[in-house]
Amino acid sequence: MWDSSMTTLIIQGTFETLYMTIASTFLAYVIGLPMGVLLVTSDSEGIVPMKLPNKILNIIVNITRSIPFLILLIAVIPLTRLITGTSIGSTATIVPLVIAAAPFIARLVESSIKEVDQGIIEASLSMGASPIQIVTKVMIPEAKPSLIIGAAIATTTILGYSAMAGIVGGGGLGDIAIRFGYYRYETGVMVVTVILLVLVVQIFQEAGMKIAQMQDRRK
Amino acid sequence: MRRVTNIDNKTSQQPIIEIKDLVKTFHPKSGEVKALDGINLTVNQGDIYGIIGMSGAGKSTLVRCINLLEKPSSGHVFIDGQDISTLTEKELRTTRYSVGMIFQQFNLLMQRTAEKNILFPLEIAGVDKETAKKRTAELLELVSLPDKAKAYPTQLSGGQMQRIAIARALANNPKILLCDEATSALDPSTTRSILNLLKEINRKLGITIVIITHEMSVVEEICSHVAIIDESKIAEVGRVEDIFRNPKTEIAKRMIYSERELSPVAMGKNFYRIVFDEKSSSESVMAKMIMETKSMVNIIHADMKNIDGVTYGQMVIQLPEDGLSASRAINYLRAHQITVEEVGSNVG
How confident is the model at residue B314 (pLDDT cuts 50, 70, 90)? Predict the structure, then answer.
């Protein structure tokens, strides 16, 4: 049962998992970071209050976040096909992962930025800073440690989601676990994939915390 | 008067901040709160202008209306003759370069070093890197903290943080410096050193300073003018000496005397408060009065202060029960241009 081809498969699966996780996290941040910033700035207490856009954004985030990932994964298959040309494999899985993770990241970013002392923002306004300058020079740099911790949480959550995509042939360690461990009762494979998944999560989590600590000047 | 000539020398008494009929109403969920109600105020160039009031009187809102961090509900604010409520967002930002502000909680960027904090407003204004670097070094020198350039705010004491905040507020060469309870989080000796720094900045650079505080001692220490604000309105306004010598309103008396008032036990019959200005106290009028009128004077409380080189203060005395010698003493003092008033139980 266990041979060199299985080892190759698992190594390949690990790389697929890393590929899906990192690519999805990156793309989800491209969408989620501006969303999170906008959620804060457009708030009625924010630096550029915009009632309607804020409300719409909140509704989008809430709806997307309330759909279970497994259902979202299947529901967006037509869109996935449209974008990647296929619905199986790790590249295809990136589409639903980004859709699910972006609003989650938006909330993480929102809560990190809200931690920035209002007084610092007021001081920046008093110096004549524009809203863009406040976002890029104050909010994001000041919230950096918290944003990095958020990124570690987002990465590990996305990694968990990516394993779920194994159900529909999404590739990666989750796919292997389901195909061999679940359908073929190969407990050995199951155990190995679980250990690997746990290890990868630990590495991301620890690295995130370490970097955040190094970046934090408040202690 | 020394202080007056001092101010006259360096400015031509040109108004730099003019506030006209300013009203600010807040609309919290439960009803309406009038934070400022018909404020009129003129601050001249080179003044150190104190705005004092109890907490909740509206003073913080008032100072935020000067740089439009709060938008007035009605009325006008003129900076250098320009009505700033008519400015576009972009014009307002440029105007804000010339109005620095410091805060009670310092509000430094915690992820930036002291040096980078001072650099921040220069980055905002788009000053080129070379010039900005030079200016930052100058400012660190001005606030006497060149050795703390690379320190992060958490590595600094409160006083040092406020010095960096002052340097940051001065980076773009403002004409006005607004101080919102800038010394309220500091201990007395640090407060004094920060006030001295502000005084020095005012003298050296001719920057007009507006100080919001709830502490009369701050006003006494450095302000040339003061506005006392009470229940959203200006109760009394004028030169610090005039207000201290002769406060007219209840609130002014309360603010001036509360910090060092005698205990209610000391209140009694024939108590008089006499207020000295620069002439009287140096001439030892008290001793002469006692000798000349042969009154038995009982000194209950005395408090003399040196404000900007002028001895000035107040004293509470008890005059004899005998009406004649009491009025003789009062007349003697009044003849020497000293304010005398009977102390009622309403003050203190």
Answer: confident
Query: Looking at the complex, does the CB of residue B174 fall below 8 Å from at least one CB of chain A?
Result: no
Q: Backbone phi, then psi, for B241, in 5-degree steps? A: -60, -45
| Closest CB from A117, A122, A130 relative to B93 | A130
Which CATH number is associated with domain B260-342? 3.30.70.260
Taking only the tens place, the pLDDT of each residue in B193-247 is: 999 999 999 999 999 999 999 988 899 999 999 999 998 999 999 999 899 888 8
Fold annotation for B2-248: Rossmann fold (3.40.50)
Helices (H), A44-178: 51-66, 69-75, 77-84, 90-114, 118-126, 131-133, 140-142, 144-164, 172-176
Each domain of chain B, given as residue ranges in start order, spans: 2-248, 260-342
Buried/exposed A135-159: b ≥16 CB within 10 Å, e otherwise: bebbbbbbbbbbbbbbbbbbbbbbb
Residue with more model confidence, A206 or B294: A206
The chain B residue lying nearest A118, using CA atoms, is B107
Task: State the Cα–Cα distance between residues B71 and B67, nearest whole angstrom.
Answer: 9
